[in-house]
Amino acid sequence: MENQSAFAVKVAKAFSVIFQPFFMPVYALLFLFNGNSMFAVLPTATKLYCFGMTLLFLLLLPMAAVAIFKRFGLVTNYGLHERQERIYPLLTMIICTFAAFWLLRLVPYTQVVQQLFLVLVLLLSVFSIITLRWKISMHTMALGALCGFLLVLGTKYPGDMRGPFIWSLIISGIVGSCRIYLHRHTPAQVYAGFLLGCLVIFGVMG
Predict the structure, then answer these.
(1) What is the extent of the structural domain holding 52?
(2) 70-93 per-position pLDDT tens digit
(3) Residue 75, CB half-sphere, CA atoms under 13 Å: how many?
(4) Confidence band of 102 (pLDDT split at 50, 70, 90)
(5) Cβ proximity of 162 and 122 under 8 Å
(6) How many structural domains does the chain have?
């Protein structure tokens, strides 16, 4: 039983790492540019520019900032488990996401990605305010935003995004269960995070 429990913990932690909130914008672009949508035919240079901006400003720089914050004792671990330790990383993510949005304006055919990033700035701002009073799941918020984004693609633009949307829902359920199993969040915090991400994205972009 102990071996089974240890294995379950490892699996839960693996899902938490693979679907870190930092990775969600990258997954969103992979679905956007490689799925069955009208955006799959955009010029390769445009796709590479979007991926470059996303990797730099929404993944590498925020992760580097967390490492710096940890070095100076502003956060105790990379998981950002404590509610009060999320403030500085969240502010960094808001600034970096807005910078990516501004730089994307310099390139044509990036309007939908610009909209996504601008809505992410709004979502992260709302999440930061909530975090001051209550801890909700950043993992499920990010996955909820991904689901909302895929729902917008499937209902507003030509193409069939039902497959990616269903898979994102399944993954959301698995990751949410993992966060509860690891005692990182309560069920209410997991549900609230997912609903916040999905409703903000779909409500603004839909």
Answers:
(1) 2-205
(2) 888 888 776 666 777 788 889 999
(3) 21
(4) very high
(5) no
(6) 1
